[in-house]
Amino acid sequence: MALSAESKLKEILEDPRGVAIMDEIIPGLTSHPQLKLGKVMSLRKVAALTGKITDEQLEAADKALKALE
Length: 69
What we know:
69 residues; mainly alpha; 5 helices
């Protein structure tokens, strides 16, 4: 399954490499107390709704996730 910023957080966090990417590029996301609520949304949607993820972080995460094979 290919991952990207369009993937649901649940899908990204099911892959240990996805967790590592999130921890590196968007520190604190994987330990955020409200993470459970956002798992059904795409990373892009979470970024838009929260305003806590910069465009640069989102694009870097998208690029890194797409590079996974």
